[in-house]
Amino acid sequence: MNKSKEQICFFNTHKAWGGGEKWHSEAACFFQEKGFHVLVCGNENGELLKKIPGEIETASVRYSNLSFLNPFAYFRTYKILRNRNIHSIILCLPIDIKIAGVVAKFCKIPHIIYRRGSAIPIKNSWSNRFLFSHIVTDIIANSEATKTTILQNNTNLFDSSRIKVLYNGIAIPPCSGKTENQVVTIGFAGRLEPQKNLFSLIAVADILKKKNLSFLIKIAGDGSLREQLEQEVHTRNLEDCVKFVGFQSNMNEFYSSLDLFVLPSLWEGFGYVLAEAMTYKLPLVAYNVSSNPELIIDGKNGFLVPLGDENLFAEKIAEMIANPSLRCEMGECARRFVEEHFDKNRNLQKVEEFICNL
After folding, report:
1. Spatial contact of 211 and 311, defined as CB atoms under 8 Å apart
2. How far apart are CA 201 and CA 178, in angstroms?
3. 65 phi and psi, to 5 degrees?
4. What is the pLDDT of residues 243-285, one digit of tens each?
5. Contact at 8 Å (CB) between 233 and 264?
């Protein structure tokens, strides 16, 4: 690839900010800093374009779920992608593949890459069979679990050799001191949505309280279930040990206030918050689902629990509450593991190598 003549296009029309948008933003900035010609296409009202530095070329688009039926959506996308010497276009959403992927094929862009960050099986539909057979040339998966779910419903959907697992990278902060807590403080961070399975965490808190243990669970984030979750905490009389702290603008301060971190999610494409927590030397407890075993080495840097076993989840937390030296040992192991496997610059270099070798 001639980076001075050919362009890399990052295409993500999701309006909100999440893990996929963070990856596209960091990757675009990395490639720009390395001297590549970069174009970022995003939702005209979305968070991605708001966070892209001014020196990076951008273009705004807006798709709805039915935009693939609208010929004007294809034409507007064609006006953006035409007459450019694009080496690779990296797409984020299924709707992006249906429109921008098809347009990219028409514009003869050689490498049409789908970057998938969700460990949810892809439907074996005629449209997916067409898109993955005739439009998408390569896939970047953010974990081995995500790669598995791509092929789960149809092993012939895509050539597995064309799926590259490239983990998210973490900006690893220098080691800093932790807050001295009067009681063991347990943290969760994420969207308050069904996937995160927070009613299970509240049930775990109930079990811990009935064991007469002293602890505090801090739940950071917001979402559609917040009111229902707060009501559940009230119903179980857990207000003294479960606190909703809302969106946190300073995650360094949040992680530094914790003694351990938990993730009760039903699935994770890549448990970004797990990796973040590990940089702060926090031991982990999570359900043994999707990509979690790729971050948590059971008994070394945390504990993995069978999905739905709230009693065992509580037991593992109780073990850590009672054993400060175990928390310290696992936290040190967590920091070493994330440094070895999830350093942001090292992992973005792997993305660069992947694209340049296509």
Report:
1. no
2. 24
3. -60, -25
4. 999 999 899 999 999 999 999 999 988 888 999 999 999 999 9
5. no
